[in-house]
Design goal:
alpha+beta, five-stranded mixed sheet, single chain, five-stranded antiparallel sheet, 204 residues
């Protein structure tokens, strides 16, 4: 099992089949609000607290995303949400699971266009054009990946600039309901950091 703190409010946990078997748990039991799943999450939170100080405060809620990396491993992303839940959003929507047979081309889950965004481009030139129009001050982090034949730009936008980033990238690319961690683990990394600035510099 590998636990990595991505940010103050987010951790990534990679669990192997052996880790699950040691807890008398199988992937088929990984379902939202299931009692064994809740116990597993609590165990993971306890480990995350002891290994990297990740703690859920009383005024926080937890968003969980889980999907397979391979036949023998699963990645779980846990994010603390401090803001109150939207009254129109069911709490179950904060538990997102990818079935084993999920394919990247199939939109199984809806993820809002918030600060963390992933956009796909059929060719690199479109991605370069899009980045050249972005205000770099609106982007906190960015990386470029290649998966199969397409290019994927993962960005973390500042809160005040997320709508502008989504509007510009939407003119050139397609919104992806896939977490950036998927590409970090399984795709070819072309530009690991400051991809927007680097790509924009290629536009002449």
């Amino acid at each position: 099992m590998r636990i990595r703190r991505i940010s103050e409010n987010k951790i990534q946990i990679i669990i192997t089949r052996q880790d699950l078997e040691a807890r008398d748990f199988n992937k088929g039991e990984l379902m939202p609000l299931g009692p064994k799943t809740q116990k597993l999450f609590q165990d993971l939170l306890d480990l995350a607290y002891h290994e990297c100080g990740f703690e859920i405060e009383d005024d926080s809620q937890l968003m969980v995303e889980a999907y397979p990396l391979s036949i023998d491993s699963i990645v779980i992303i846990m994010t603390k949400i401090r803001a109150p839940l939207d009254e129109e959003v069911d709490e179950d929507s904060f538990l997102t699971f990818w079935p084993e047979e999920a394919d990247l081309d199939e939109g199984y889950y809806h993820i809002k266009k918030g600060c963390e965004q992933v956009w796909s481009f059929a060719d690199l030139e479109n991605c370069i054009q899009a980045c050249s129009r972005l205000n770099p001050e609106c982007v906190e982090q960015s990386a470029l990946y290649k998966y199969k034949e397409d290019y994927y730009l993962a960005v973390v936008a500042h809160h005040d600039g997320q709508k502008e980033v989504a509007a510009i990238l939407g003119e050139y690319g397609d919104w992806q309901t896939v977490h950036a961690a998927f590409f970090a683990e399984r795709a070819q990394t072309l530009i690991p950091r400051e991809a927007v600035v680097n790509l924009a510099s290629l536009n002449k």
